[in-house]
Amino acid sequence: MNISNAELLGKKNVKKVLIYLSIPAILGMVVNALYNFVDTLFVSIGVGEIAIGGLAFAFPVQMLAMAISLMIGMGSASIFSRAFGRGDTETMKSAVNTALRIALISSVIMSLFGFIFLDDLLIFFGASASNIVYAQDYMIVILIGLAPLSLTMVLNNLTRAEGRAKIAMISMIIGTGLNILLDPIFIFNWGFGLGVRGAAIATVISQIVAFIYIFLVSINQKSSLMISLKNFFNIPLKMVKEITIIGLPSFLRNSIGAFLAVIIYRLIGQYTVGDPAIYISIYGVINRVMMFVFMPAFGIIQGMIPIVGFNYGAKNHARLKSVIRFATEIVIIYFIIGFVFIQFFAESIFSLFSESDNQIFIQNGSQAFKVIAFGFILVGFQVVISSVYQAIGYPLKAMIVAVSRQLILFIPLAYILTSVMGLQGLWISFAISDTVAGLLGLGLLIYEMKAIQGRIPSPHLDTIDNLTPDINAI
Protein backbone atom coordinates (compact mmCIF):
# COMPACT_ATOMS: atom_id res chain seq x y z
CA MET A 1 0.00 0.00 0.00
CA ASN A 2 1.13 3.53 -0.73
CA ILE A 3 1.29 5.02 2.79
CA SER A 4 1.49 8.63 1.59
CA ASN A 5 -1.79 8.29 -0.32
CA ALA A 6 -3.48 6.71 2.71
CA GLU A 7 -2.34 9.62 4.89
CA LEU A 8 -3.54 12.11 2.28
CA LEU A 9 -7.05 10.62 2.14
CA GLY A 10 -7.38 9.86 5.84
CA LYS A 11 -5.41 12.42 7.87
CA LYS A 12 -4.57 15.67 6.07
CA ASN A 13 -6.81 18.77 6.28
CA VAL A 14 -9.94 17.57 4.47
CA LYS A 15 -10.66 20.86 2.69
CA LYS A 16 -7.13 21.08 1.38
CA VAL A 17 -7.26 17.44 0.29
CA LEU A 18 -10.54 18.03 -1.55
CA ILE A 19 -9.04 20.98 -3.40
CA TYR A 20 -5.84 19.05 -4.04
CA LEU A 21 -7.75 16.12 -5.59
CA SER A 22 -10.36 18.28 -7.28
CA ILE A 23 -8.11 20.67 -9.16
CA PRO A 24 -6.54 17.93 -11.30
CA ALA A 25 -9.98 16.34 -11.70
CA ILE A 26 -11.50 19.69 -12.71
CA LEU A 27 -8.76 20.42 -15.21
CA GLY A 28 -8.90 16.89 -16.52
CA MET A 29 -12.68 16.83 -16.91
CA VAL A 30 -12.79 20.28 -18.52
CA VAL A 31 -10.11 19.16 -20.92
CA ASN A 32 -11.99 15.91 -21.52
CA ALA A 33 -15.19 17.83 -22.26
CA LEU A 34 -13.25 19.70 -24.93
CA TYR A 35 -13.31 16.53 -27.06
CA ASN A 36 -16.92 17.03 -28.10
CA PHE A 37 -16.85 20.82 -27.71
CA VAL A 38 -13.90 21.26 -30.08
CA ASP A 39 -15.27 18.73 -32.56
CA THR A 40 -18.59 20.59 -32.61
CA LEU A 41 -16.96 24.02 -32.93
CA PHE A 42 -14.59 23.05 -35.76
CA VAL A 43 -17.33 21.16 -37.60
CA SER A 44 -19.67 24.15 -37.39
CA ILE A 45 -16.94 26.38 -38.84
CA GLY A 46 -15.70 23.96 -41.47
CA VAL A 47 -18.94 22.30 -42.55
CA GLY A 48 -21.91 24.32 -41.18
CA GLU A 49 -24.62 24.38 -38.50
CA ILE A 50 -26.58 21.45 -39.96
CA ALA A 51 -23.54 19.19 -39.59
CA ILE A 52 -23.74 19.73 -35.81
CA GLY A 53 -26.92 17.69 -35.94
CA GLY A 54 -24.93 14.80 -37.38
CA LEU A 55 -22.68 14.88 -34.32
CA ALA A 56 -25.74 15.20 -32.09
CA PHE A 57 -27.13 11.91 -33.40
CA ALA A 58 -23.86 10.27 -32.45
CA PHE A 59 -24.36 11.51 -28.89
CA PRO A 60 -26.66 8.68 -27.66
CA VAL A 61 -24.19 6.02 -28.80
CA GLN A 62 -21.27 7.88 -27.22
CA MET A 63 -23.22 8.39 -24.01
CA LEU A 64 -24.09 4.71 -23.78
CA ALA A 65 -20.43 3.76 -24.22
CA MET A 66 -19.42 6.31 -21.58
CA ALA A 67 -22.19 5.06 -19.28
CA ILE A 68 -20.82 1.52 -19.36
CA SER A 69 -17.26 2.78 -18.80
CA LEU A 70 -18.29 5.01 -15.90
CA MET A 71 -20.29 2.20 -14.33
CA ILE A 72 -17.21 -0.01 -14.39
CA GLY A 73 -14.81 2.78 -13.43
CA MET A 74 -16.79 4.27 -10.55
CA GLY A 75 -17.97 0.90 -9.27
CA SER A 76 -14.44 -0.48 -9.14
CA ALA A 77 -13.09 2.81 -7.73
CA SER A 78 -15.60 2.68 -4.87
CA ILE A 79 -14.60 -0.89 -4.02
CA PHE A 80 -10.91 -0.04 -4.40
CA SER A 81 -10.98 3.09 -2.20
CA ARG A 82 -12.85 1.36 0.64
CA ALA A 83 -10.46 -1.60 0.45
CA PHE A 84 -7.57 0.87 0.39
CA GLY A 85 -8.90 2.37 3.62
CA ARG A 86 -9.06 -1.11 5.21
CA GLY A 87 -5.65 -2.15 3.86
CA ASP A 88 -7.21 -5.03 1.88
CA THR A 89 -4.74 -5.43 -1.01
CA GLU A 90 -6.39 -8.59 -2.39
CA THR A 91 -9.70 -6.80 -2.97
CA MET A 92 -7.85 -3.79 -4.43
CA LYS A 93 -6.10 -5.97 -7.01
CA SER A 94 -9.24 -7.90 -7.90
CA ALA A 95 -11.31 -4.72 -8.40
CA VAL A 96 -8.73 -3.17 -10.73
CA ASN A 97 -8.10 -6.16 -12.98
CA THR A 98 -11.72 -7.22 -13.18
CA ALA A 99 -12.72 -3.68 -14.17
CA LEU A 100 -10.17 -3.44 -16.98
CA ARG A 101 -11.10 -6.82 -18.43
CA ILE A 102 -14.85 -6.30 -18.51
CA ALA A 103 -14.35 -2.76 -19.87
CA LEU A 104 -12.37 -4.09 -22.83
CA ILE A 105 -14.81 -6.90 -23.56
CA SER A 106 -17.92 -4.71 -23.31
CA SER A 107 -16.46 -1.96 -25.53
CA VAL A 108 -15.53 -4.43 -28.28
CA ILE A 109 -19.02 -5.94 -28.22
CA MET A 110 -20.61 -2.49 -28.42
CA SER A 111 -18.40 -1.48 -31.37
CA LEU A 112 -19.40 -4.61 -33.30
CA PHE A 113 -23.08 -4.02 -32.54
CA GLY A 114 -22.76 -0.39 -33.65
CA PHE A 115 -21.18 -1.29 -36.99
CA ILE A 116 -23.88 -3.84 -37.77
CA PHE A 117 -26.89 -1.69 -36.86
CA LEU A 118 -25.59 1.87 -37.42
CA ASP A 119 -28.07 2.98 -40.10
CA ASP A 120 -31.03 1.47 -38.25
CA LEU A 121 -29.98 3.25 -35.04
CA LEU A 122 -29.63 6.65 -36.71
CA ILE A 123 -33.02 6.36 -38.40
CA PHE A 124 -34.58 5.35 -35.09
CA PHE A 125 -32.98 8.38 -33.43
CA GLY A 126 -34.78 10.60 -35.95
CA ALA A 127 -32.02 11.50 -38.42
CA SER A 128 -33.25 13.23 -41.56
CA ALA A 129 -31.92 13.23 -45.11
CA SER A 130 -30.07 16.51 -44.43
CA ASN A 131 -27.95 15.26 -41.54
CA ILE A 132 -27.79 11.44 -41.57
CA VAL A 133 -24.71 11.39 -43.81
CA TYR A 134 -22.81 13.52 -41.28
CA ALA A 135 -23.83 11.16 -38.47
CA GLN A 136 -22.69 8.12 -40.46
CA ASP A 137 -19.31 9.67 -41.28
CA TYR A 138 -18.70 10.52 -37.63
CA MET A 139 -19.92 7.31 -36.01
CA ILE A 140 -18.15 4.84 -38.30
CA VAL A 141 -14.83 6.15 -37.00
CA ILE A 142 -15.87 6.83 -33.38
CA LEU A 143 -16.91 3.19 -32.95
CA ILE A 144 -13.32 2.13 -33.61
CA GLY A 145 -12.14 4.15 -30.61
CA LEU A 146 -14.56 2.82 -27.99
CA ALA A 147 -12.05 0.38 -26.47
CA PRO A 148 -9.26 2.88 -25.68
CA LEU A 149 -11.87 5.42 -24.52
CA SER A 150 -13.44 2.89 -22.14
CA LEU A 151 -10.13 1.70 -20.69
CA THR A 152 -8.92 5.27 -20.20
CA MET A 153 -12.08 6.24 -18.34
CA VAL A 154 -11.77 3.22 -16.03
CA LEU A 155 -8.12 3.96 -15.28
CA ASN A 156 -8.94 7.62 -14.67
CA ASN A 157 -11.36 6.64 -11.90
CA LEU A 158 -8.96 4.13 -10.39
CA THR A 159 -5.97 6.49 -10.33
CA ARG A 160 -8.13 9.05 -8.52
CA ALA A 161 -9.21 6.38 -6.06
CA GLU A 162 -5.57 5.72 -5.15
CA GLY A 163 -4.96 9.46 -4.65
CA ARG A 164 -3.12 10.16 -7.93
CA ALA A 165 -5.59 12.55 -9.50
CA LYS A 166 -2.84 14.31 -11.46
CA ILE A 167 -2.32 11.18 -13.56
CA ALA A 168 -5.95 11.22 -14.69
CA MET A 169 -5.68 14.93 -15.42
CA ILE A 170 -2.54 14.53 -17.52
CA SER A 171 -4.05 11.71 -19.58
CA MET A 172 -7.04 13.88 -20.39
CA ILE A 173 -4.86 16.87 -21.22
CA ILE A 174 -2.75 14.73 -23.56
CA GLY A 175 -5.82 13.40 -25.35
CA THR A 176 -7.66 16.68 -25.67
CA GLY A 177 -4.58 18.74 -26.49
CA LEU A 178 -3.77 16.37 -29.33
CA ASN A 179 -7.41 16.45 -30.45
CA ILE A 180 -7.36 20.24 -30.64
CA LEU A 181 -4.19 20.13 -32.75
CA LEU A 182 -5.44 17.40 -35.09
CA ASP A 183 -9.04 18.59 -35.60
CA PRO A 184 -8.35 21.46 -38.01
CA ILE A 185 -5.75 19.38 -39.85
CA PHE A 186 -8.24 16.61 -40.55
CA ILE A 187 -11.38 18.77 -40.96
CA PHE A 188 -10.47 21.82 -43.03
CA ASN A 189 -9.68 21.89 -46.75
CA TRP A 190 -6.18 23.29 -46.17
CA GLY A 191 -5.43 20.01 -44.39
CA PHE A 192 -6.92 16.63 -45.26
CA GLY A 193 -10.37 18.16 -45.85
CA LEU A 194 -12.27 15.21 -44.37
CA GLY A 195 -14.97 17.28 -42.68
CA VAL A 196 -17.01 15.44 -40.05
CA ARG A 197 -15.09 12.19 -40.56
CA GLY A 198 -11.85 14.10 -39.96
CA ALA A 199 -13.16 15.25 -36.57
CA ALA A 200 -13.82 11.64 -35.60
CA ILE A 201 -10.37 10.49 -36.77
CA ALA A 202 -8.68 13.22 -34.71
CA THR A 203 -10.70 12.18 -31.65
CA VAL A 204 -9.88 8.47 -31.93
CA ILE A 205 -6.15 9.07 -32.44
CA SER A 206 -6.16 11.30 -29.36
CA GLN A 207 -7.96 8.73 -27.25
CA ILE A 208 -5.49 6.01 -28.20
CA VAL A 209 -2.52 8.17 -27.21
CA ALA A 210 -4.19 9.10 -23.88
CA PHE A 211 -4.77 5.43 -23.10
CA ILE A 212 -1.16 4.50 -23.83
CA TYR A 213 0.02 7.16 -21.38
CA ILE A 214 -2.25 6.29 -18.46
CA PHE A 215 -1.71 2.55 -18.89
CA LEU A 216 2.08 2.90 -18.79
CA VAL A 217 1.90 5.09 -15.69
CA SER A 218 -0.53 2.70 -14.00
CA ILE A 219 1.81 -0.28 -14.28
CA ASN A 220 4.86 1.43 -12.77
CA GLN A 221 6.04 0.84 -9.21
CA LYS A 222 4.55 4.07 -7.85
CA SER A 223 1.03 2.85 -8.57
CA SER A 224 -1.10 0.92 -6.06
CA LEU A 225 -3.33 -0.50 -8.81
CA MET A 226 -1.43 -3.80 -9.24
CA ILE A 227 -2.46 -4.35 -12.87
CA SER A 228 -1.88 -7.88 -14.12
CA LEU A 229 -2.02 -9.06 -17.73
CA LYS A 230 -1.98 -12.75 -16.78
CA ASN A 231 -5.04 -15.01 -16.93
CA PHE A 232 -7.06 -12.43 -18.85
CA PHE A 233 -10.28 -14.45 -18.92
CA ASN A 234 -10.10 -15.31 -15.22
CA ILE A 235 -12.83 -12.86 -14.25
CA PRO A 236 -14.42 -13.38 -10.80
CA LEU A 237 -18.18 -13.08 -11.21
CA LYS A 238 -18.66 -11.94 -7.62
CA MET A 239 -16.46 -8.89 -8.26
CA VAL A 240 -18.23 -8.23 -11.56
CA LYS A 241 -21.51 -8.20 -9.66
CA GLU A 242 -20.20 -5.80 -7.00
CA ILE A 243 -18.70 -3.43 -9.57
CA THR A 244 -21.88 -3.46 -11.63
CA ILE A 245 -24.28 -2.86 -8.75
CA ILE A 246 -22.24 -0.08 -7.19
CA GLY A 247 -21.60 1.55 -10.57
CA LEU A 248 -25.21 1.12 -11.71
CA PRO A 249 -26.29 4.67 -10.73
CA SER A 250 -23.59 6.11 -13.01
CA PHE A 251 -24.73 3.83 -15.81
CA LEU A 252 -28.36 4.81 -15.35
CA ARG A 253 -27.53 8.51 -15.11
CA ASN A 254 -25.63 8.47 -18.38
CA SER A 255 -27.52 5.80 -20.31
CA ILE A 256 -30.78 7.52 -19.47
CA GLY A 257 -29.15 10.63 -20.94
CA ALA A 258 -28.73 8.69 -24.18
CA PHE A 259 -32.32 7.47 -24.02
CA LEU A 260 -33.56 11.00 -23.32
CA ALA A 261 -31.57 12.35 -26.25
CA VAL A 262 -33.49 10.01 -28.56
CA ILE A 263 -36.80 11.13 -27.05
CA ILE A 264 -35.79 14.77 -27.42
CA TYR A 265 -34.78 14.32 -31.07
CA ARG A 266 -38.07 12.64 -31.85
CA LEU A 267 -40.09 15.31 -30.05
CA ILE A 268 -38.22 17.99 -31.95
CA GLY A 269 -39.06 16.19 -35.19
CA GLN A 270 -42.70 15.90 -34.19
CA TYR A 271 -43.23 19.52 -33.13
CA THR A 272 -41.11 21.31 -35.73
CA VAL A 273 -42.70 22.55 -38.95
CA GLY A 274 -40.49 21.49 -41.84
CA ASP A 275 -36.95 20.10 -41.49
CA PRO A 276 -36.07 19.80 -37.77
CA ALA A 277 -32.31 19.73 -38.49
CA ILE A 278 -31.62 23.26 -37.21
CA TYR A 279 -33.30 22.50 -33.85
CA ILE A 280 -31.43 19.21 -33.55
CA SER A 281 -28.26 21.27 -33.99
CA ILE A 282 -29.45 23.73 -31.32
CA TYR A 283 -29.86 20.93 -28.81
CA GLY A 284 -26.50 19.53 -29.90
CA VAL A 285 -24.80 22.83 -29.05
CA ILE A 286 -26.59 23.11 -25.68
CA ASN A 287 -25.50 19.58 -24.80
CA ARG A 288 -21.85 20.21 -25.66
CA VAL A 289 -21.70 23.56 -23.90
CA MET A 290 -23.32 22.23 -20.73
CA MET A 291 -20.83 19.36 -20.63
CA PHE A 292 -17.99 21.86 -20.98
CA VAL A 293 -19.23 24.60 -18.64
CA PHE A 294 -20.25 22.32 -15.77
CA MET A 295 -17.34 19.89 -15.76
CA PRO A 296 -15.62 21.84 -12.91
CA ALA A 297 -18.55 20.99 -10.63
CA PHE A 298 -18.25 17.33 -11.53
CA GLY A 299 -14.52 17.63 -10.93
CA ILE A 300 -15.28 18.59 -7.33
CA ILE A 301 -17.45 15.49 -7.07
CA GLN A 302 -14.65 13.33 -8.49
CA GLY A 303 -12.31 14.79 -5.89
CA MET A 304 -14.83 14.12 -3.13
CA ILE A 305 -15.59 10.48 -3.96
CA PRO A 306 -12.25 8.87 -2.97
CA ILE A 307 -12.18 10.89 0.28
CA VAL A 308 -15.72 9.79 1.15
CA GLY A 309 -15.04 6.16 0.22
CA PHE A 310 -11.74 5.99 2.11
CA ASN A 311 -13.04 7.62 5.31
CA TYR A 312 -16.23 5.59 5.27
CA GLY A 313 -14.09 2.44 5.02
CA ALA A 314 -11.85 3.78 7.81
CA LYS A 315 -14.94 4.75 9.92
CA ASN A 316 -13.75 8.36 10.21
CA HIS A 317 -17.23 9.86 10.19
CA ALA A 318 -16.39 13.38 11.33
CA ARG A 319 -14.09 13.72 8.35
CA LEU A 320 -16.76 12.18 6.12
CA LYS A 321 -19.33 14.77 7.16
CA SER A 322 -16.88 17.63 6.73
CA VAL A 323 -15.92 16.80 3.15
CA ILE A 324 -19.55 16.29 2.08
CA ARG A 325 -20.55 19.69 3.45
CA PHE A 326 -17.60 21.53 1.90
CA ALA A 327 -18.06 19.87 -1.51
CA THR A 328 -21.78 20.73 -1.50
CA GLU A 329 -21.10 24.40 -0.83
CA ILE A 330 -18.65 24.63 -3.71
CA VAL A 331 -20.88 22.76 -6.17
CA ILE A 332 -23.99 24.83 -5.44
CA ILE A 333 -22.14 28.14 -5.75
CA TYR A 334 -20.60 27.02 -9.01
CA PHE A 335 -23.94 25.96 -10.51
CA ILE A 336 -25.44 29.34 -9.63
CA ILE A 337 -22.51 31.09 -11.33
CA GLY A 338 -23.15 28.88 -14.37
CA PHE A 339 -26.79 29.94 -14.46
CA VAL A 340 -25.84 33.61 -14.41
CA PHE A 341 -23.21 33.07 -17.11
CA ILE A 342 -25.73 31.48 -19.47
CA GLN A 343 -28.27 34.28 -18.95
CA PHE A 344 -25.72 36.87 -20.05
CA PHE A 345 -23.77 35.00 -22.72
CA ALA A 346 -26.18 32.56 -24.42
CA GLU A 347 -26.33 34.66 -27.62
CA SER A 348 -22.54 34.89 -27.79
CA ILE A 349 -22.25 31.13 -27.37
CA PHE A 350 -24.55 30.40 -30.29
CA SER A 351 -22.92 33.09 -32.44
CA LEU A 352 -19.63 31.27 -31.90
CA PHE A 353 -21.12 28.14 -33.45
CA SER A 354 -22.64 29.94 -36.43
CA GLU A 355 -20.14 30.90 -39.10
CA SER A 356 -22.99 32.14 -41.33
CA ASP A 357 -24.59 34.22 -38.52
CA ASN A 358 -27.84 32.26 -38.84
CA GLN A 359 -30.31 34.27 -36.72
CA ILE A 360 -32.86 31.45 -36.47
CA PHE A 361 -30.13 29.27 -34.98
CA ILE A 362 -28.77 31.99 -32.69
CA GLN A 363 -32.02 33.44 -31.37
CA ASN A 364 -33.93 30.19 -30.87
CA GLY A 365 -30.87 28.47 -29.41
CA SER A 366 -30.06 31.21 -26.90
CA GLN A 367 -33.68 31.46 -25.73
CA ALA A 368 -33.86 27.69 -25.19
CA PHE A 369 -30.57 27.68 -23.28
CA LYS A 370 -31.69 30.49 -20.94
CA VAL A 371 -34.85 28.58 -20.03
CA ILE A 372 -33.01 25.31 -19.44
CA ALA A 373 -30.45 27.07 -17.22
CA PHE A 374 -33.03 27.91 -14.52
CA GLY A 375 -32.83 24.28 -13.40
CA PHE A 376 -29.12 24.60 -12.64
CA ILE A 377 -29.73 26.64 -9.49
CA LEU A 378 -30.70 23.64 -7.33
CA VAL A 379 -29.73 20.53 -9.28
CA GLY A 380 -26.29 20.42 -7.63
CA PHE A 381 -27.85 18.95 -4.46
CA GLN A 382 -28.97 15.91 -6.44
CA VAL A 383 -25.52 15.46 -7.97
CA VAL A 384 -23.84 15.52 -4.55
CA ILE A 385 -26.15 13.13 -2.71
CA SER A 386 -26.18 10.59 -5.54
CA SER A 387 -22.38 10.56 -5.58
CA VAL A 388 -22.18 10.23 -1.79
CA TYR A 389 -24.45 7.19 -1.82
CA GLN A 390 -22.37 5.69 -4.61
CA ALA A 391 -19.05 6.35 -2.86
CA ILE A 392 -20.10 4.60 0.35
CA GLY A 393 -21.62 1.63 -1.48
CA TYR A 394 -25.40 2.25 -1.34
CA PRO A 395 -26.32 1.69 -4.99
CA LEU A 396 -30.09 1.42 -4.56
CA LYS A 397 -30.43 4.89 -3.05
CA ALA A 398 -27.92 6.30 -5.52
CA MET A 399 -29.87 4.76 -8.38
CA ILE A 400 -33.21 6.15 -7.22
CA VAL A 401 -31.77 9.63 -6.86
CA ALA A 402 -30.00 9.39 -10.21
CA VAL A 403 -33.11 8.41 -12.19
CA SER A 404 -35.53 10.78 -10.43
CA ARG A 405 -34.55 13.82 -12.47
CA GLN A 406 -34.49 12.34 -15.93
CA LEU A 407 -36.66 9.25 -15.99
CA ILE A 408 -39.32 9.98 -13.37
CA LEU A 409 -39.64 13.75 -13.83
CA PHE A 410 -38.43 14.84 -17.25
CA ILE A 411 -40.09 12.32 -19.58
CA PRO A 412 -43.71 12.84 -18.43
CA LEU A 413 -43.19 16.61 -18.32
CA ALA A 414 -41.66 16.67 -21.80
CA TYR A 415 -44.57 14.82 -23.41
CA ILE A 416 -47.20 16.85 -21.57
CA LEU A 417 -45.68 20.31 -22.04
CA THR A 418 -44.65 19.85 -25.69
CA SER A 419 -48.20 18.76 -26.53
CA VAL A 420 -49.44 22.01 -25.01
CA MET A 421 -46.65 24.50 -25.72
CA GLY A 422 -44.62 23.00 -28.55
CA LEU A 423 -40.81 23.18 -28.37
CA GLN A 424 -40.95 25.83 -25.65
CA GLY A 425 -42.54 23.21 -23.42
CA LEU A 426 -39.59 20.93 -24.06
CA TRP A 427 -37.09 23.49 -22.76
CA ILE A 428 -39.30 24.29 -19.73
CA SER A 429 -39.39 20.58 -18.89
CA PHE A 430 -35.63 20.62 -18.35
CA ALA A 431 -35.86 23.50 -15.88
CA ILE A 432 -38.75 22.04 -13.87
CA SER A 433 -37.29 18.52 -13.60
CA ASP A 434 -33.88 19.85 -12.54
CA THR A 435 -35.45 22.09 -9.88
CA VAL A 436 -37.64 19.37 -8.37
CA ALA A 437 -34.78 16.85 -8.40
CA GLY A 438 -32.55 19.41 -6.69
CA LEU A 439 -35.10 19.92 -3.92
CA LEU A 440 -35.35 16.15 -3.48
CA GLY A 441 -31.56 15.94 -3.28
CA LEU A 442 -31.45 18.76 -0.71
CA GLY A 443 -33.92 16.94 1.53
CA LEU A 444 -31.98 13.68 1.33
CA LEU A 445 -28.69 15.44 1.97
CA ILE A 446 -30.04 17.12 5.12
CA TYR A 447 -31.43 13.80 6.30
CA GLU A 448 -28.17 11.90 5.77
CA MET A 449 -26.02 14.60 7.35
CA LYS A 450 -28.19 14.40 10.45
CA ALA A 451 -27.86 10.61 10.37
CA ILE A 452 -24.09 10.90 10.30
CA GLN A 453 -24.30 13.11 13.38
CA GLY A 454 -26.31 10.35 15.07
CA ARG A 455 -29.43 12.46 15.60
CA ILE A 456 -31.79 10.15 13.73
CA PRO A 457 -31.63 6.57 12.44
CA SER A 458 -30.97 6.02 8.74
CA PRO A 459 -32.13 2.54 7.66
CA HIS A 460 -30.67 1.49 4.32
CA LEU A 461 -32.27 -1.10 2.13
CA ASP A 462 -29.23 -2.17 0.16
CA THR A 463 -25.89 -3.79 0.91
CA ILE A 464 -23.33 -5.55 -1.26
CA ASP A 465 -22.55 -8.96 0.23
CA ASN A 466 -22.01 -7.32 3.63
CA LEU A 467 -19.12 -5.22 2.31
CA THR A 468 -20.88 -2.10 3.52
CA PRO A 469 -22.11 -1.71 7.12
CA ASP A 470 -25.40 -0.07 7.93
CA ILE A 471 -25.08 3.68 8.25
CA ASN A 472 -26.50 3.38 11.78
CA ALA A 473 -22.96 2.26 12.67
CA ILE A 474 -21.95 5.87 12.12
Q: Would you mind describing this structure in some detail?
A:
This protein is mainly alpha-helical and 474 residues long. The protein has one domain (13-473). 81% of the residues lie in helices and 0% in strands. It contains 16 helices and no strands. The longest helix is centred in the first third of the chain and has 38 residues, at 49-86.
What's the structural blueprint in terms of helices and strands?
Blueprint: H1 3-10, H2 14-46, H3 49-86, H4 89-125, H5 132-142, H6 146-161, H7 165-187, H8 195-218, H9 237-271, H10 277-293, H11 295-313, H12 317-352, H13 359-373, H14 376-391, H15 395-421, H16 423-452
Summarize the structure.
With 474 residues, the protein is mainly alpha-helical. It has 16 helices and no strands.
Mean pLDDT: 85
Number of strands: 0
Based on CA atoms alone, the radius of gyration comes out at: 22 Å
Helical content (DSSP H or I, runs of 4+): over 70%
Write down the domain tally: 1
Distance between the termini: 26 Å
User: What is the helix tally?
Assistant: 16
Report the sheet-strand fraction. under 5%
Shape: globular
Helices and strands, in order, run as HHHHHHHHHHHHHHHH
Please identify the structural class as seen in this structure.
Answer: mainly alpha
Low-confidence stretches: 455-474
Biggest sheet, in brief?
none
